Amino acid sequence: MTAVRRQSRRVAELVRFGVSGAPASMTLLVVIWVLGAATSSLTGPSGYVERHFAASVPALEQGRVWTLLTSGLWAPSLAGYLAATLMVLVVAAPVEHRIGSSRFVAAAASTQVCGTLFALGLAALVRTVDETWGFRLHIGTAVSPTTWIIGSAMVAAAGMTTLWRRRVRVGGLALLLTLALFSGHLIDLVRLGAAVAGLVIGPWIVTRSARGTHLAGTRREGRVLVALVVAAGAIGPVLAALSPHAVGPLAVLRELFRGVPWTPAEVRELCATDATALDCRRGLLELRLGGVGPTILSVMPSLFLLVLADGLRRGRRFAWIAAVAAQVVLLALSVVDFGIRYAGFADEQTLFYGLDSPNVYRTATPFLVPIAILLLLLATRRWFTVTAPRSVIRTLWVRIAALVAGVGVAYVALGMLARGGFDREPNLASLAADYPQRLVPPVYLQWLDPRFLPDSAPTTLLYEWTGVLVWAVLCVSVAATFLAPAHGERSDDTERARTLLTTGTGSPLSWMTTWRGNRYWFAPDGRSYVAYRVIAGVALTTGDPVGPPESLRANVTGFADFATANGWTPCFYSVTGNLKQATDAMGWTAIQVAEETVLRLDRLQFTGKKFQDVRTALNRAAKSGVTAEWIRFPDAPLSLTDQITAISEEWVADKGMPEMGFTLGGIDEIDDPQVRCLIAVDEARTVHGVTSWMPVYRDGRIVGWTLDFMRRRSEGFRPAMEFLIASAAQSLKEEGAEFVSLSGAPLATVQNDAGPADDDPQPRDQVTLAVLLDRLLDVLGRTLEPVYGFRSLLAFKAKFQPDYVPMYMTFADPAALPSIGNAVGRAYLPEVSVGQGMRLVRTMIRSR
């Protein structure tokens, strides 16, 4: 209840915040109600309003151009007035407060006019290809304030943060396009036109915000946007099916839920006279489609797609496969539809989808939605790699099999007990044969003559609700698998690795071995493992082997033998000095690739001149009302997680390059119950910065924490990072932690000109190679500095006076260095496009 009250207060504050600085919105709202009352149009536009102020094709043809504007000052019904009032308070007023009254008026007027012109022009075009829909648009009228509200929101989106700009645009356009294609009224086209106009002219009215190079800046946000599109495609048929007045080109389901004019007995009487008569076939179809149960069963596939959309949002591979299969099935049904209604696969009196006057255009249009969604899913398949543990999937299939079998037995048994309640008394075999049909939405059964129909309340309940029960349990069961913990493509191996890490000993970077993208080699004794990924024939590890310290040499040798046996070049990356000593003894080459910074908490004191910046950050936070708060991202309220995601997306967009991975975590990596996040929030619960901390284990207990994720709001509390790191160190010291690691920055090291020691155990040619490689990495680090700022990050961490611990890359074969360098680059940036590569080169050239 506390959370509900807090959210209610936030909504109320948002409304007050918007209304207080929105004179234009409030004035328009008053005008709308006054005009509605003055023209007796509060329950619907009067004839006078429709003739003189509503937008329509005839009005424009007759020169009433003012209707392009005035159509936004009336609503179609009392519910429309109430909805417009709510949208003004929640959308229009905050938009005006954000972009200013003059810009808001320009946005509202321009999108209203442009959107209406777009709709009227499209109506004229549609009439040339679809006479039925075009005629409805031609005689239709449109009045609604929602057009300029939606248009102004799209204009304002141009200045929003990257995350919300993408979500508003993709979600809004998907919903409006769905309404236009399925509902298909003139006002639906006007809303879509206003949104498109706002999308186009938005950057010219408001300041354009930072933009990423992709529609989806990170894999996580890409999944959200794909899920939104799939959800819109699922909702569209339901909207059309439940709307008795749907006229859009995809409203092929609008007649599925008609009232049933006949009883089973009357239909049997009709069919007894002539089983092939149109009335007989129509009566049988309507008996199947009538009632609450068949109505719900008909929309269950759409509900299942919504469940899959949630799985897509979570990156689940099972959801992607099921969604692809669903779109293939829908495409196949569209092909059958086309064949029956146009190509003559069936007789002329078919009732498929109930359309009386099919044409090529209307039968071909339904192909577009499943094809578009299918292409989108195939193009983004690499984003959906998360699989649930095998035990979860195995349980799902067992549960589904038991459900189908158990409900089938119950259907047959109950049917035999109540067989007198059917118009034709069934036997055991006919009930068993009829059971699969009860699981299929009724519209797909119209070619089959029903063996029997229910004629009593108990048999009607059994006949109509059996399929609903199975589909409902299926949806719940599949949704449950999406909630099961999953950590990558091989969740079972990841769970095993997590268990070994949390009960054993690891290095400060060992928690990175549990991240998605890693594969695992387990030692023969089952007490140790190595996390690695194979790229371009190189088995590149993530940190040291995890396991007992005394097994380090054996684990290195075992993994090297394993990699060599598979034809891979072994390379240990971001490893400690202990592992370097082991590989030095084996004759391997080692170079330093990063510098880990460690704060020993037993001697932590932010005193003296060296910590002046840290103390300033703590003092400024106290004066500004900014506090540090520990959260777990998976359990945090949406109001906080959305802000954190928005901050991260904006950071990625500013870079113009994809977020780096491998040893650098992002939102996916902090979405872990074992990882702690420390956020900087003010009194209004605005998040100004966030850091994530990974546990470090020794002998099964946490002895330290490693910093990973660091993001700061671009316009927020500036010393947020200094404040958060200092606060984390103080808090973790009180909890009994021994140290905190500020992690390492790739390609950034503390300068050391001493050169290799005389007693370096490596051969002279390998020492020379190491020097050359070190110089090459130094050049590469300086070149990439303008883009990713690793050296600036290392300099920032120096404010905390840490201990510096070198991190190395070791490999056995110096001749494989080009392949190793390629593998490391692809590990950090696996999804760099050609355009991003060119942008990276331009940035590096300009920086020089």
List keywords for this structure.
848 residues, alpha+beta, Rhomboid-like fold, Aminopeptidase, eleven-stranded mixed β-sheet, 32 helices, globular, membrane
In short:
The protein has three domains: 14-212, Up-down Bundle (Rhomboid-like fold); 264-483, no CATH class; 586-848, Aminopeptidase (3-Layer(aba) Sandwich), CATH 3.40.630.30. The protein is built from 32 helices and eleven strands. An eleven-stranded mixed beta sheet has the order 1-2-3-4-11-5-10-9-8-7-6, sandwiched between helices.
What report would you give on this structure?
- With 848 residues, the protein is of the alpha+beta class.
- It has 3 domains: 14-212, Rhomboid-like fold, CATH 1.20.1540.10; 264-483, no CATH class; 586-848, Gcn5-related N-acetyltransferase (GNAT) (Aminopeptidase), CATH 3.40.630.30.
- Helix 1 packs across helix 6 and helix 7 (101-126) crosses helix 11 (186-205).
- The longest helix is centred in the middle third of the chain and has 28 residues, at 390-417.
- The protein is globular and about 95 Å long.
- The two termini are 58 Å apart.
- The model is unreliable at 210-216, 253-260, 345-357 and 752-767 (pLDDT under 50).
- It is a multi-pass membrane protein.
- Pfam families: LPG_synthase_C (PF09924).
